[in-house]
């Protein structure tokens, strides 16, 4: 088993032929933020990609040193000081059929620029629920069709995004971010068992909270807990922390002291 590595130069080196398993949704990706010419949390992203590949049975042969080398090469090639790198891992070429497997995966590195948004989000509850036992929610899959449909429906009614719930009516995540709430200066976030992707920034926020004696709980969060929260925010690798101003008809404090503290701690975090 092996991994072919590609650097996408201005869209001219697209590595996926039509028989690649990625066109059946068999693939993973990582999105890394580039700050001051450096990839943030490079090892954590590498570890999560390896964990996901192992779960799906996709071969991934790239040691961390080579991973880091390719990231820095992309940054230098694009003269990128601030932006992002999307790394896509495909299942590789294989014969037709859902049960077919490839012995050679493909890994593509692609740089991009983006604008960081800071306005508070308006969320609505998703019109359908997720099965928290579905393993697809445990990995950063290339299949984002559910998120695309839900997000477009949210925008049709003037919201920015949706919040998904599971079969038990417990909160999970938005289409692209992990969820946190604050109640009585305590921090709460849905646990992994609720059916979420364990985000990199989520992981760092929990680490920073513990290091700074901020009490937090990974637990099941029902609708009542959400609507009674003092503050709410979401987080992901590119946007960091973004506050939520409204969920359905409930509004939240936009500038909570604990949110401000977490933003400061995250800004100082050595990524």
Automatic annotation (TrEMBL):
InterPro entries: Aminotrans_IV, Aminotrans_IV_CS, Aminotransferase-like, BCAT-like_C, BCAT-like_N, Class-IV_PLP-Dep_Aminotrnsfr. Its cofactor is pyridoxal 5'-phosphate. SUPFAM superfamilies: D-aminoacid aminotransferase-like PLP-dependent enzymes. Pathway: Amino-acid biosynthesis; L-leucine biosynthesis; L-leucine from 3-methyl-2-oxobutanoate: step 4/4; Cofactor biosynthesis; tetrahydrofolate biosynthesis; 4-aminobenzoate from chorismate: step 2/2; Amino-acid biosynthesis; L-valine biosynthesis; L-valine from pyruvate: step 4/4; Amino-acid biosynthesis; L-isoleucine biosynthesis; L-isoleucine from 2-oxobutanoate: step 4/4. GO terms for biological process: amino acid biosynthetic process; folic acid biosynthetic process. GO terms for molecular function: 4-amino-4-deoxychorismate lyase activity; branched-chain-amino-acid transaminase activity. Keywords: Folate biosynthesis, Lyase, Pyridoxal phosphate. It catalyses: L-valine + 2-oxoglutarate = 3-methyl-2-oxobutanoate + L-glutamate; L-leucine + 2-oxoglutarate = 4-methyl-2-oxopentanoate + L-glutamate; L-isoleucine + 2-oxoglutarate = (S)-3-methyl-2-oxopentanoate + L-glutamate; 4-amino-4-deoxychorismate = 4-aminobenzoate + pyruvate + H(+). Pfam families: Aminotran_4 (PF01063). It comes from the Bacteria. Its EC number is 2.6.1.42, 4.1.3.38. Belongs to the class-IV pyridoxal-phosphate-dependent aminotransferase family. Involved in the biosynthesis of p-aminobenzoate (PABA), a precursor of tetrahydrofolate. Converts 4-amino-4-deoxychorismate into 4-aminobenzoate (PABA) and pyruvate. This is Aminodeoxychorismate lyase.
């Amino acid at each position: 088993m092996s991994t072919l590595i590609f650097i996408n130069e201005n869209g001219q080196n697209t590595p996926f032929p039509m028989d690649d398993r990625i066109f059946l949704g068999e693939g993973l990706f990582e999105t890394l933020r580039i700050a001051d010419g450096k990839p943030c949390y490079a090892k954590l992203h590498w570890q999560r990609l390896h964990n996901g590949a192992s779960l799906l049975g996709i071969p991934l042969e790239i040691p961390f040193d080579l991973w880091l080398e390719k990231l820095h090469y992309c940054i230098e090639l694009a003269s990128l000081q601030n932006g992002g790198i999307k790394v896509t891992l495909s299942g590789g070429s294989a014969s037709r059929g859902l049960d077919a497997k490839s012995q050679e995966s493909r890994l593509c590195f692609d740089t991009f620029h983006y604008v960081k948004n800071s306005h508070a989000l308006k969320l609505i509850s998703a019109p359908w629920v997720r099965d928290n036992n579905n393993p697809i929610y445990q990995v950063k899959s290339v299949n984002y069709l559910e998120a695309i449909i839900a997000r477009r429906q949210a925008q049709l009614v003037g919201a920015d995004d949706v919040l998904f719930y599971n079969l038990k009516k417990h909160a999970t995540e938005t289409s692209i971010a992990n969820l946190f709430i604050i109640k009585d200066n305590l921090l709460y976030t849905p646990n992994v068992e609720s059916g979420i992707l364990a985000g990199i920034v989520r992981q760092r926020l929990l680490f920073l909270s513990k290091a700074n004696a901020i009490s937090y709980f990974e637990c099941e969060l029902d609708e009542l807990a959400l609507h009674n929260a003092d503050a709410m925010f979401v987080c992901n690798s590119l946007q960091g922390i973004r506050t939520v101003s409204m969920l359905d008809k409930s509004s939240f404090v936009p500038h909570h002291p604990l949110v401000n503290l977490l933003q400061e701690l995250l800004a100082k975090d050595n990524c």
